[in-house]
Amino acid sequence: MSEQVYNRLAVVRAERKVSRQALADAVGAHYQTIGYIERGQYNPSLDLALRIAAHFGLPVEALFSLEPFDPLTEEVYGRKQS
Question: Residue 64 forms beta bridges with which residues?
Answer without folding.
Answer: 7
